[in-house]
Design brief:
The chain has 14 helices and 11 strands. The chain has 377 residues and is α+β, with helices and mostly antiparallel strands. The strands form 3 sheets. Strands 1, 2, 3, 8, 9, 10 and 11 form a 7-stranded antiparallel sheet that branches. Strands 4-5 form a two-stranded antiparallel sheet. Strands 6-7 form a two-stranded antiparallel sheet. It is globular.
Length: 377
């Protein structure tokens, strides 16, 4: 009996110990943007109920104040598709001279996914390639721009990951600057809002994001008209554009912003089957209409300010930002593990039940056991 009790107690310690440690580790991480944004798996909003949308994850935030007005699974790590190009632009815009001329290559023209029409041997200004990147979501334009920068694609990816960390976008990990589906490439609705905030703070980014049409050269002669894929620009009053995205695995992703009544709001959508323009319109209309009644549910963190080699990374609230996690790509929404929701003592309950059953055996069995031991002695 003593051996059995010792075994049970040891098992309880082995089971409960790691679970308690895991829960403690989870609780010790500083929440990015506020507790509600990391503890609530469903839509969180105060003051009014947001409209139902089809996207699996979304964020609505005020870009001027940084307040988050509503969110659903804001930190779920999902495939970003071409909305990741906003981060690509944040890295390349300050590094490249827009008057530079880039000669198209076979690698540019042969890239997968959406293209604006970069042909080998043709000459393009950096400015025009940025237009092709924003309006047509041209992966060929992104490839040409990244290759034109020092270090090429690999260096651009490295700079993108560093830039994401700098602005507090810790859900993001980049492996392809075009946003194409790639192993380990993830972002979140929260991070997309940070990219929009940082981007629209740059006049050049804001200009490209809101441009409706441009003309792009054809292979032989002449040009053709390219229209911005963000339909919000064409049918929403005060729209500032930003970026759309789609892949078969990411499904529809979206960043849209608009300015009305002295407020600049952004809506980000991820993992949406369809109807992103309609969903974005509903969320923006709701936010503008109920703005004064809404209480913030979180904040967009401010970029890290480097003051020296050992500067500590702080959020807008002055608390240290958590280290970047290395969570593998989830096929759907990142949800909290069931194991973390169950108290550690619950895992030991079956062992105590077995012990109770053993101690409460029928009297006949206990007598039989005693007689057996007596015969052995």
């Amino acid at each position: 009996m003593r051996v059995l009790l010792t075994a049970c107690a040891t098992t309880v310690m082995l089971v409960a110990g790691p679970l308690t440690a895991t829960a403690a580790a989870q609780g010790s991480r500083s929440p990015v943007g506020g507790v509600q944004l990391t503890s609530e798996a469903t839509v969180v909003a105060a003051g009014a109920t947001p409209p139902a949308v089809q996207a699996g994850s979304f964020v609505v935030a005020d870009l001027d104040t940084g307040t988050v007005l509503a969110a659903k699974a804001p930190h779920a790590k999902l495939r970003p598709a071409s909305t990741l190009k906003t981060l690509t632009a944040l890295v390349l815009l300050p590094r490249l001279n827009k008057a530079d001329v880039v000669v198209g290559s076979d690698a540019d023209a042969g890239i997968e996914g959406s293209k604006v029409g970069v042909y080998p041997g043709l000459r393009y200004s950096v400015d025009l390639l940025f237009q092709g990147m924003f309006l047509a979501s041209g992966n060929d334009a992104v490839h040409a721009l990244a290759q034109h920068d020092q270090g090429g694609i690999a260096a651009t990816i490295d700079r993108m990951n560093k830039k994401a960390e700098e602005i507090g976008a810790l859900d993001t990990h980049v492996t392809d600057p075009t946003g194409l589906d790639a192993d380990g490439q993830v972002s979140s609705a929260y991070d997309l809002a940070l990219f929009a905030q940082a981007g629209l703070g740059r006049p050049d980014f804001a200009k490209y994001a809101s441009t409706k049409y441009t003309n792009f050269p054809l292979a032989k002669a002449g040009t053709y008209q390219v229209a911005n894929q963000n339909k919000l620009l064409f049918n929403y009053d005060g729209a500032l554009g930003v970026k759309t995205g789609y892949t078969t695995l990411a499904r529809n992703t979206f960043i849209g912003a608009a300015r009305r009544d002295g407020h600049t709001l952004v809506v980000t959508l991820m993992n949406s089957p369809h109807g992103i323009t309609e969903d974005a319109t509903k969320l923006l209309d709701w936010s503008f209409s109920h703005y004064d009644a809404l209480s913030p549910v979180g904040t967009l963190v401010k970029p890290v300010t480097k003051t020296g080699p050992n500067v500590s990374k702080k959020s807008a609230a002055g608390t240290p930002l958590p280290k970047r996690t290395h969570t593998v790509l989830m096929p759907a929404l990142a949800v909290q593990s069931l194991a973390l929701r169950i108290p550690s003592w619950a895992y030991a309950a079956p062992l105590f039940l077995l012990l109770a059953v053993f101690l409460r055996r029928p009297r006949a069995l206990r007598v039989h056991s005693k007689k057996t031991r007596a015969r052995r002695h």
